[in-house]
Amino acid sequence: MLIIYPSIAYALTLLTIVIHNRQMTAVSSVTEASSESFLSSRKHKFWIHLLLFILLVLHGYACYQDIFTPQGLVFGFAQALSMMAWVGIALYWVEGWFFRLYGMLPLVLGMAMIFSFLPYVFEGAIISTKAVHSPGFRLHFITANMAYGIMFLAALQAILMTWQDKNLRSNKGTHSASWLQLLVLGQRTSLLDQLPPLLTMERVLFNVIGIGFCLLTVAVFSGAFFSQALFGRPLTLDHKTIFSLMSWSMFGGLLYANWKVGLRGAQASKWVLGSFGVLLLAYVGSRFVLEVILQKI
Prior knowledge:
mainly alpha
């Protein structure tokens, strides 16, 4: 039952932020104050980061208890998505101290709320009884999930960058209020107004991908050292290995293209989303087919 609490906490936090922001929007309309300046104020940033830190501790503890059990290492597509969301929130927490990323918060919290609830419905399976006692495999496991989570946040950022670019091209920098903006922030402030400029978003994106690529490199190639010892079989070119290598090559190619020819903008965002989609197929997609579609664990 512990694993259901993070999703409730995420939902309550998101609801609290929505109510608070709408109240501040109403106040700013009367006092003619800037709601955007409040949303980016130091006091508001501190309380948001304190809430996120509490959520990270709760979610992280729930993930650890759910995966590293006395019976063995329990894992599945739901646990992978939950861990991915936790790492994404953690990286957002760090980045949020240095960049104005408030516009990403509703999307990040909403995804974390959904993903942290999935292990309550899909319990996963014991994939190894030895792995839970191996410090080396734990390091490999944590590195792989950190890479997944960082690339997950990069994919969310690429979606927002695509949205930013579309608005700049179609509306010449003016943002019409969508239902999401009205729900979360009220009528005066757009979600996109809470994001850094597009050029800053691109710089942050490639920094994030660079970190994720280093971790993904360690995760992909260290798996070969633990396969024989823990699972009794050498590394084979199955769908998981093939998709992992494909994703690693695609992210590496993206970084090289950005460094060599300055690839950026919409093309870079599409490349990020495509690479992350292949990465999801490497494990999350295959486990989803086994556990849900084929109803076999």
